[in-house]
Amino acid sequence: MAGRPAVAWPTVKRRQQKNLSRHLFEATLSGDAARVRALLRAGADPERRYGDGSTPLYFASVQGEAEVARLLMEAGAAPDTESGEDGSQGTPLCAAACWGHTGTVRELLAHGADPNLREDHGTGLSPLEWAEHGPHPGTAGLLTAAGAEPARRPSDGSRPGR
């Protein structure tokens, strides 16, 4: 049409995706599973990182939002991705184990999270070590049943990864 500026569709799409992602983070933080489901159906990317590098799945895991975590993983969020710009926040499973969110730990394991994966750029601890230091014995038991191996202490008594 004459007189109308050309629409830059890639720019519009990026802006829409950014808005969807922002809303997905808000819904995740508030534990609003219905809104998370709707946003994912509308095309929100379950792996798009927030400004500080945080992932929606990490936030859901810290908050103990098992249903939200399940929805994110069913939409393609990888359960072992470290959060934070440099991975410094750690893995979703370590976050859920740290806070004793057994339901979220169960969902992460059911979707393939590695019960022995240590945080490389965070503390270096495993999910089981986080649960044991909680102390969250129910969460530790669930991780052990899923194949988590107890930490081997170095001969100097320090923790592995430190």
Range of strand content: under 5%
CATH class: Mainly Alpha
CATH superfamily label? Ankyrin repeat-containing domain
Low-confidence stretches: none
Kindly give the count of domains.
1
Helix share bin: 40-55%
Organism: Streptomyces minutiscleroticus
ANK repeats: 52-84, 88-120
Protein name: Serine/threonine protein kinase
Region (Disordered): 112-162
List the helices and strands and how they pair.
Elements: H1 9-30, H2 33-41, H3 56-63, H4 66-74, H5 92-98, H6 102-110, H7 127-133, H8 137-145
Structure report:
- The chain is mainly alpha-helical.
- It has a single domain, classed as Serine Threonine Protein Phosphatase 5, Tetratricopeptide repeat.
- It is 49% helix and 0% strand.
- It has eight helices and no strands.
- Helix 1 (9-30) runs antiparallel to helix 2, helix 1 (9-30) packs parallel to helix 3 and helix 7 (127-133) packs antiparallel against helix 8.
- The longest helix has 22 residues, at 9-30.
- It is elongated, with a radius of gyration of 18 Å.
- It starts with 8 loop residues before the first helix and ends in a 17-residue tail after the last helix.
Summarize the structure.
This protein has 162 residues and is mostly helical. Helix content is 49%, strand content 0%.
